[in-house]
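#lab-general

N.A. 3:47 PM
ok so I finally got the sequence cleaned up, no stray characters, all 59 residues accounted for. can someone with queue access submit it? mine expired

B.Y. 3:52 PM
send it over

N.A. 3:53 PM
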Amino acid sequence: MDVSYQEVSVDFNSKLRAEMASRAGKTSVPQIWFGEEHIGGCDDLHELHAAGNLFKALN
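B.Y. 4:20 PM
back already:
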């Protein structure tokens, strides 16, 4: 599957990390969004895939 994505590193940028935490409600990384929809972290993405809903969420 060919999906374009943008990686935003918050490792050394405290402003971006604070914005991520504010928007996601979590401080762990990665936090994953599809557009403006917050998916969650890596485990949440795997659960979405295991439930068969990943492709639907991408569209």
